[in-house]
Amino acid sequence: MILSLLDFRYIITHTLWIAKRYIERIAIVSSGGGVSFSGREVVEWMQKIQDWNPKFFTLSHIPEKYLFYVSKFIRRVVIARMAEAPDLAGAYHHKLREAYETEDELKNQDVLRVNKEHLIRLLDEVETQLNETAYIAGEEFSLADVTLIPVLARLVLLDLEDEYIRSRPNIAEYWLLVKQRPSYKKVIGKYFDGWGRYRTLIRTWCFVRIRSMLKRY
């Protein structure tokens, strides 16, 4: 099956949920310092951001005709990663079970509505906070910002930047600011900005397809 670039655009948004927790940690390492690790405000903001489930929101914005293939692609990626790292099989089994459960919950419109409302409240709170400070937990870049950046990157990949980011002036300015950080350019921008998003997906898609073909012979 040959996918168009439009197909790639929708599928790549789902690679983020696999990489999200790793991106948060890599960004800290690659930031070259200047990251605040502690503080009550940092912890509180991290908890608020992590309380929102991005999977429901992302999947609900994929056209129905692509949804089955995307779900299948996610499961194949998880299985491929499991084969690469047998020691982490338990964690990947959990991810696989989550993928199936998410597909079932997507049929519940109340779940999707509550999830969207949760995101809007979160972004509105961030917008208010950024009216007072340069970053969401104060005047210094912190782990709270590291946790928020993948959320904003996800919205951009879903072509929802106008609705959720640019419509909030403080977040729009903040987004421009954090994208200039070396950590963003190295960890996220390099792979997900512009054509980088397609290169990243093509490599992952080819890996999964080649592995599937080899298993047949």
Automatic annotation (TrEMBL):
Q: Which InterPro entries match?
A: Glutathione-S-Trfase_C-like, Glutathione-S-Trfase_C_sf, TCHQD
Task: Indicate the segments forming the GST C-terminal domain, all copies.
Answer: 75-202
The superkingdom of the source organism is Eukaryota
List the GO molecular function terms. glutathione transferase activity
**Which PROSITE patterns does the UniProt record give?**
GST_CTER
Q: Which residues form a coiled coil?
A: none
Would you tell me the protein name for this molecule? Answer: GST C-terminal domain-containing protein
